[in-house]
Write a structure and sequence with these properties.
single chain, alpha+beta, Adenine-n6-DNA-methyltransferase TaqI, Chain A, domain 2, 2 domains, four-stranded antiparallel sheet, 25 strands
C-alpha cells in the first residue's frame, strides 16, 4: 500500500500549462489528400499498443511542415503520451526521446498528454495509464454509441497515484530497463528474420548465384559454395528454374497432417499445451505467453494424429488464414482446432528450408496461382495444402542453407523466450511498484538524485 508521501491527483493537474491535454484535429481538417511521402509524421492507432510497448515507430503517414503548422494545437513531441479516443480504447504510447523526429501530428482519433516534468515523470505516468488496471478503467468508463470512445474531459479527470518525483523516476527506470531489453530483442529478431528471408530469396526465388554464373559474373560466394550452383536455367511448370532443380509438391517434401476434429477440451490450470491461433506470430515464431493447457488425458487424444515437435510447422486454416509458425527447440504441443501440422519427410530433413519456403513470396504466388486455377485455398483446406508446389535444389544446397540459417532461427527463438521471461517479470513488478506495494531499493533512489 502506498505511504503518506504518495498522493492522488488527476492527469489534468500534471499536464503542461500550454497545450498539455489536446486531441487531434477534426477528421475533415486532416484529409488523406494532404498526405505526402515525407515530412511531419502523423500518429495513428497503429503506432500505439494495448499494453506496455512504448511506441511503434513504423507505418507512419506524413503531412508537410506547412500543413502541420496550421494544426499546431495538435502537434506533439518526444516525451508526450498518446491515447486513443475513438476505436480501440486503452491503446497508449509514449513518443521516445530518442526519436529521429522532433514533432508529430495527432490523427483525428488520438489525444495527447504533455506532462509537466516538475510535477511528474512522463515515463512513470505512461506506465501508470498503460497498466491493465488503468486500461480496464478506460474501457469500462467509455461511452459506447456504435464506436467506443472517450474524450479530453474524461482524460483530464483521470486519477493517478503519484509517489515523490525521484521515486517515480526510479520506478520508471526499473520497468523501463526491462522494456529496453524487450525492445532490443524485438529489433534483433526483425534483423535476423530479414537476413533469413534475404538469403532464401536470393538463392531460391531470384536464383542470384545461378544467374551470376550464367552471365559470367562472380556469384559473390566462396568457391566451394558457388560450385554447388549450376550456371544455366531450364523451363518448368513454374517458369524458368536452375538446371536440374526439381518442382515437387509440398506433400512430397513434408507430411501434411490435419488437426483432430473434436470438441475443444476444457482449459485447466496445470497441464499440457494445446496450440491456439493466437500463439502464431507474424514472424513465424510461436509465442506461448498465453498457453492453453489441457489434461494429460485430453493431450493424449489430441496428439493421436500428430504431436507438434521441434522443427515442425503449423499453419492456420481459418481466421488468419495461412499464418505459419515453427515449433521451437525443447517444446512439444498438441495441435488445436483449425490448424494443420507440417513436418519434413525423412528424405528432406531440412526444417529451416521448410519454414522459409512456407513464408516466402514465392509460396504466396503459388497460392494465388492455385486459387486462380480453381483450387479453393481461401479457407486453406488441408486436402489442398499438399498440392502446393515448391522448388527443391540438390540435397547439398539444402544442407548448406540449413547450416547457414538454422542458427538464425534458433537465435530468434531464444530471443523470444527471453522476451517472454522479461515481460512476465515486468508485468509482475509493475502493479506492485505503481501502487506502492513494492518499493525500489534505496540505492536506486539515490542514483536518481
Amino acid at each position: 500500500m502506498a505511504t503518506d508521501a504518495w498522493r492522488q491527483v488527476t492527469l489534468g493537474e500534471i499536464a503542461a500549462s500550454e497545450y498539455g491535454l489536446v486531441d487531434g484535429p477534426f477528421g475533415s481538417n486532416l484529409p488523406a489528400s494532404e498526405y505526402v511521402p515525407s515530412g511531419v509524421p502523423v500518429i495513428r492507432g497503429s503506432n500505439l499498443s494495448l499494453g506496455l510497448r512504448r511506441f511503434n515507430d513504423d507505418s507512419f503517414v506524413y503531412v508537410s511542415e506547412e500543413f502541420a503548422q496550421r494544426l499546431a494545437r495538435s502537434l506533439c513531441h518526444p516525451g508526450d503520451i498518446v491515447f486513443t479516443k475513438k476505436g480501440t480504447l486503452g491503446q497508449t504510447g509514449i513518443i521516445p526521446v530518442s526519436s529521429k523526429f522532433d514533432e508529430f501530428l495527432l490523427s483525428s482519433n488520438q489525444m495527447k498528454l504533455s506532462v509537466d516534468p516538475s510535477k511528474a515523470d512522463p515515463l512513470f505516468v505512461f506506465y501508470f495509464v498503460s497498466s491493465p488496471t488503468s486500461r480496464g478503467k478506460i474501457i469500462q468508463d467509455s461511452t459506447v454509441t456504435g464506436v467506443p470512445k472517450t474524450n479530453l474531459a474524461y482524460l483530464r479527470d483521470f486519477p493517478i497515484l503519484l509517489p515523490p518525483i525521484k521515486e517515480q523516476t526510479a520506478i520508471a527506470g526499473t520497468v523501463g530497463s526491462l522494456d529496453d531489453m524487450i525492445e532490443l530483442n524485438r529489433k534483433m529478431n526483425e534483423t535476423l528474420e530479414a537476413m533469413a528471408r534475404a538469403l532464401f530469396k536470393s538463392w531460391f526465388v531470384d536464383f542470384d548465384p545461378v544467374r551470376a554464373k550464367a552471365e559470367g559474373r562472380d556469384p559473390g560466394l566462396p568457391a566451394h559454395i558457388a560450385a554447388l550452383f549450376p550456371g544455366s536455367f531450364e523451363d518448368s511448370e513454374l517458369g524458368e528454374v536452375p538446371t536440374d532443380w526439381k518442382i515437387i509438391s509440398l506433400g512430397d517434401f513434408a507430411e501434411v497432417i490435419d488437426c483432430l476434429h473434436s470438441r475443444k477440451p476444457e482449459r485447466v490450470e496445470e497441464g499440457l499445451p494445446l496450440l491456439q491461433l493466437g500463439n502464431i506470430r507474424a514472424d513465424a515464431l510461436l509465442d506461448m505467453t498465453d498457453t492453453y493447457l489441457i489434461t494429460s488425458e485430453d493431450y493424449t487424444k489430441w496428439i493421436s494424429r500428430m504431436e507438434a515437435s521441434p522443427g515442425n510447422c503449423v499453419v492456420t486454416n481459418v481466421g488468419r488464414v495461412g499464418a505459419v509458425a515453427q515449433i521451437p527447440s525443447d517444446f512439444k504441443a498438441a495441435l488445436g482446432r483449425n490448424m494443420t501440422g507440417i513436418r519434413c519427410r525423412t528424405a528432406y530433413p531440412f526444417p529451416t528450408y521448410l519454414i522459409q519456403a512456407l513464408t516466402s513470396s514465392s509460396m504466396s504466388e503459388e497460392i494465388v496461382r492455385k486459387t486462380d486455377s480453381g483450387t479453393i485455398l481461401d479457407s486453406l483446406n488441408v486436402r489442398n495444402i499438399p498440392r502446393l508446389r515448391i522448388i527443391v535444389p540438390p540435397i547439398q544446397i539444402l544442407a548448406l542453407f540449413e547450416r547457414q540459417c538454422r542458427p538464425i532461427r534458433a537465435r530468434m527463438e531464444a530471443n523470444l523466450k527471453e522476451t517472454s521471461s522479461l515481460a512476465a517479470l515486468r508485468d509482475t513488478l509493475l502493479p506492485k511498484l505503481i501502487s506502492g506495494g513494492m518499493h525500489v531499493p534505496a540505492a536506486t533512489l539515490e542514483s536518481t538524485i
